[in-house]
Fold this sequence. Notes:
- The protein is of the alpha+beta class.
- The protein has two domains: about 1-90, Cytochrome b5-like heme/steroid binding domain (Flavocytochrome B2, Chain A, domain 1); about 115-148.
- Helices cover about 50% and strands about 15% of the residues.
- It has a five-stranded mixed sheet with strand order 1-5-4-3-2.
- A hairpin with a 2-residue loop joins β3 and β4 (about 30-35).
- The longest helix has 28 residues, at about 120-145.
- It comes from Lolium multiflorum.
- Belongs to the cytochrome b5 family.
Amino acid sequence: MAEETETKQLFSPSDVSLHTSRKDCWVVIHGKVYDVTKFLEDHPGGEDVLLHVSASGDATEAFEDVGHSTSAISMMSSYLIGSIEGYMPPKASEHTTVGGSDEPPNSRTTQRNKGSPAPNTFLDFVLPLFMLGLAIAAWYYLTFVAKS
Ligand code: HEM
């Protein structure tokens, strides 16, 4: 692993932005830089998507959204040429709370995404039914019981 890092170069985002053409195309995925120029024609997803994400600066999200197979992921190493200097993964800021801010926005979103929705769903379902039952009971009482 250490060998790999030593042999690969460090690039800045502006270095990468100079390689967005059909003849010279780099993409950034999880902070790693891949020279996909020779892969453009063979990419099963087409060359246009690669050119598009190359120009966008970071292909991580698009790459993940596709849900590439493990064989696709293992192919990537043959196109790896280096990594982005000082790359900060968007979701890893939990580990790098340098300023020590009071608000942890990530934990809030994580809780919402990972927290079990079951108790809320149950209440959302039962509460309207309970209110409806109460309304029917009140109507029945006022119409038939109270009048007699
Ligand atoms: C070095 C980087 C990449 C490699 C080696 C690679 C490889 C592959 C391979 C082997 C497939 C066939 C399906 C599979 O096995 O998952 C595929 C499909 C695809 N890839 Fe990539 N890919 C790379 C980067 C990207 C990026 C950055 C995007 C961005 C949008 C992308 C978009 C797609 C799409 C849209 C498909 C078609 C999926 C389908 O039709 O089901 N790929 N890729």
